[in-house]
Amino acid sequence: MDDLFDISGNVILVTGSTGGIGRALAEGYAERGAKVVINGRDEARVASETARLTALGHSATGAVFDVTDPQAVDEGVKSIEAEIGPIAALINNAGIQHRQALEDFDNERWDALLATNVSSAFYVGKAVARHMISRRSGKIINIASVQTELARPGIAPYAATKGAIRNLTRGMCADWARYGLQANAIAPGYFRTDLNAALVADPAFTKWLEARTPAARWGNVGELVGVAVFLASNASSFVNGQTIFVDGGITASV
Ligand code: NDP
């Protein structure tokens, strides 16, 4: 019997995988035999994460590029395809967050959010999809957020970028499903990463989160791996254009 969830030998590029969620996803894929490509802007962080996975006996290669720079993205994707192999799955994970009252929200921060959270998925998605289209197969997984559903104060621009990611995911499906590609999104709830450092440090926030979330706790980044493996494997062969929430039930409860 085929293992529906088998991803061994597949080249999987995870953007922003030197820390947080991307790091956990890359490790989860590597543990299941995928050839993971570690990405970030900082050469030393990429080298250190790649070395850590390699020392654990996994297949990992570094690709240093800034996902907001379309030329660097094109060059990075080209060299992964030439030197590591055909990209079977792309995880558009790199992202940033800024919290500030909307009336005071800096224009530079708005621009940075759009560039890192939205343009990145377009640039990397397009560069990778062109190769996938020529092979008539490939999986794209975009990282969205529960913030598309929650409307919390101070976070409107970030939530707007994640809403764009949900619709970009549907659009990738609409344009590319005919070529055998699948595009889906994972919408995480609250996870303790550098991106959430201010919330993690605030006991009042954890109290709110525990009261608001049916599971009554923060998520652990490893809890995103199951859905990520599902979406990168044949087990999800007819799942397309969807956003799957991994959030302890926070978006299911009013
Ligand atoms: P972290 O800040 O912990 O990690 C972000 C990663 O992205 C780092 O590896 C960083 O590396 C990389 N990165 C940032 N900017 C760029 C860039 N321009 N080019 C390449 N790499 C970049 O964030 P999280 O792990 O928390 O978040 C990952 C994704 O998950 C984001 O899209 C976020 O919006 C989303 N998310 C997170 C949630 C959470 O609770 N943590 C909840 C919902 C969604 P470096 O700085 O070295 O380049």
TrEMBL record:
Molecular function terms from GO: oxidoreductase activity, acting on the CH-OH group of donors, NAD or NADP as acceptor
Q: Is Transferase set as a keyword in this record?
A: no
Which top-level group of life is the source organism from?
A: Bacteria
For the Ketoreductase domain, which residue ranges apply?
10-194
UniProt xrefs under InterPro entries: KR_dom, NAD(P)-bd_dom_sf, Sc_DH/Rdtase_CS, SDR_fam
Keyword field: Oxidoreductase
- Where does the UniProt annotation place the signal sequence? none
Q: Its family? A: Belongs to the short-chain dehydrogenases/reductases (SDR) family.
Q: What is this protein called?
A: SDR family oxidoreductase
Source taxonomy: Bacteria, Pseudomonadati, Pseudomonadota, Alphaproteobacteria, Rhodobacterales
